[in-house]
Amino acid sequence: MEILLLMGGFLLLLLFRVPIALSLAVVSIGTGLYMGISPAAIIQRMASGLNSFSLLAIPFFILAGEIMNEGGISRRLIALANVIIGKIRGGLALVNVLASTFFGGISGSALADTSSLGSVLIPMMKKQKYDKDYSVAVTISSSVQGVLIPPSHNMIIYSMAAGGVSIGGLFMGGLIPGLLLGLVIMILAYVIAVKKNYPRGEVIKKEEIPKIVREGLLGMFTVVIIIGGILTGIFTATESAAIAALYAFIITFFVYRDIKISRMGVILQRTFKTLAMVLFLIGASSGFGWLLALLEVPSMVSNGLINFSPSPAITLLMILIILLLLGMIMDMAPLILIVTPILLPVAIDIGMDPVHFGIVLMLALGIGLVTPPVGSILFVGSAIGKISIEKATKGMIPFYTVMIIALLMIAYIPSLTLFLPQLLGQ
């Protein structure tokens, strides 16, 4: 009855469109009262869920991304990608994917990727006679790289939910899968571009190239600070995030100088708003997760999945299906916090490394972000492209196919994820 009250109450509140964090908090306190647990004990568990040093990295990563985005980094990354690959048939679509690869290494957010790059590239593609559904599909599918390519604040949330998995290991583990995802999307985009005879990109004047490359690389150096600092041991993840935010501030306001420093107030306001939502969600999920553990739900799910099939390959496939289905109906961050304590023990039982499972989790839930009925990135892309969700979804069908192929490769070939962490001792 307690499990039914906890899980059923949560789903019922979601159906009534109650915000996820509030739903988690309400059902946790309600179930606790039914079990005879003091609300103060539940609230204490929620507060203790925020008592983690690694969580300090999240506000700095969010701030760095907001500063760079406001300061025109998206335009510069698009120009850099255009220099590299824009001359090819369907070049603007390939620029879209490559710019998402670059941008993912700065923002770590698929939503920020779609919002900033999509608002520039989708109108540009439509102007050059690309189909609307194709333009939206390329934009939103490539934005999923943002949850894999380091730094990703979702990986920090997973690290906390998994009991302290190495953030450096997760960052390094997501690099090859993120690049693989970008590659398969780029190949598909090129094949469709050739088939539909989309135009080549515009030729850039040679005298403009040095400036474009210099400004693009200056922005991307943020990634070098974060990854290099963590790998060399100079910085912790939190310290590297703080240094990256400071670097983003200097580059935006004293090098690029596209915006006035008075805009910093708006940037901080957006950062605090995002941070408040994330922290409330983490706290509420901590109380919910504690009750799940108290009711032994993780062990029930683990035993059920393992007893269903003795084959680790089949069990892994079932985990992937569960994650993809859940990703279709709920946002990424709360799902990470809810399913990690439940499914990570199952993954470990079938021989998966926690870093490997974390990256598989990121991609599977990332695909959910672009999948109806609740895919937030799908809605944003459709709004920017001014097309219906149905038409955008239809245009996404071939992209779903290659994304699922990439997910299966990453899930069943652990070395794609673990090679760099093991090589670098993470």
Structure notes:
- The chain has 426 residues and is an all-alpha fold.
- It has one domain (49-423).
- 77% of the residues lie in helices and 0% in strands.
- The protein contains 20 helices and no strands.
- It has helices spanning 2-15, 20-34, 39-48, 57-70, 73-85, 91-107, 110-127, 132-143, 153-161, 167-195, 209-232, 237-256, 264-294, 297-308, 312-327, 332-349, 354-368, 376-385, 389-412, 415-423.
- α4 packs parallel to α12, α6 (91-107) runs parallel beside α8 (132-143) and α8 packs parallel to α19 (389-412).
- The chain is globular and about 70 Å long.
Q: Short description, anyone?
A:
The protein contains 20 helices and no strands.
Keywords for this entry:
globular, 426 residues, mainly alpha, 20 helices
What's the structural blueprint in terms of helices and strands?
Elements: H1 2-15, H2 20-34, H3 39-48, H4 57-70, H5 73-85, H6 91-107, H7 110-127, H8 132-143, H9 153-161, H10 167-195, H11 209-232, H12 237-256, H13 264-294, H14 297-308, H15 312-327, H16 332-349, H17 354-368, H18 376-385, H19 389-412, H20 415-423
Helix pairs in contact: 1-2, 2-13, 3-13, 4-12, 4-13, 5-6, 5-11, 6-7, 6-8, 6-10, 6-11, 7-8, 7-18, 8-18, 8-19, 9-16, 10-17, 10-19, 10-20, 11-12, 13-16, 14-16, 15-16, 15-17, 16-17, 17-19
